[in-house]
Design a protein that fits this description.
The chain has a domain at 84-190: Alpha-D-Glucose-1,6-Bisphosphate, Chain A, domain 4. Helices cover 34% and strands 26% of the residues. It is built from 6 helices and 5 strands, in the order αααβαββαββα. A 5-stranded antiparallel beta sheet has the order 1-5-4-3-2, covered by helices on one side. Strand 2 and strand 3 (123-134) form a beta hairpin. The longest helix is centred in the N-terminal third of the chain and has 16 residues, at 10-25.
Amino acid sequence: MISQRKPLSMKKLLVAAAFAALLLSGCSLFHHKNSAWERAVEERPLEVPPDLDTPPTSAQLVVPPAGDAAAAAPAAAGAPPSAGVGDSLSVTDDVESAYRRVGLALERAGVGTVVARDAAAHSYQVAVQTTVVHEKQGGFFHRLFSRKKTETVTGNVSVTVGAEGSGSKVQLEGDRAAVQQLLTALKARLG
């Protein structure tokens, strides 16, 4: 048996064409011509009042040059890529006062243990316990059903206080995770 189809009536064809035109027009029917973002103008940057200090930005977003021999040496020696990272913090006190404040902050922060002090060089050696998470390699299902391996690592950080202009600069060098953990604690204590 062969079924016969009725041809579409002209009225249904016009309704279908109008509906298709509405769909193809997209959201332009609902688009406002005077959008606030089109009228927006750039404002002048925020100004810091003269009696306040601007935060130091000298060590932020520093990208080492490609092929740097200092960065390639630890990787070639089998050291983890996080070794030998440094960061700094500016303090408005003189060197002696800043050295004492940093020592108190290191003891009270509870982040690490001060293992050595050198008052003549204004430096501390700090052992910091950090937790390292090892990501598992593999496919989607392997990563989905396997657990992440964590281990506690002791990172050594060298903290040195030196003169910088009318204030002092606290320089931290050592393992990346340990430096970041200690820097966060020092900023909270000294800030």
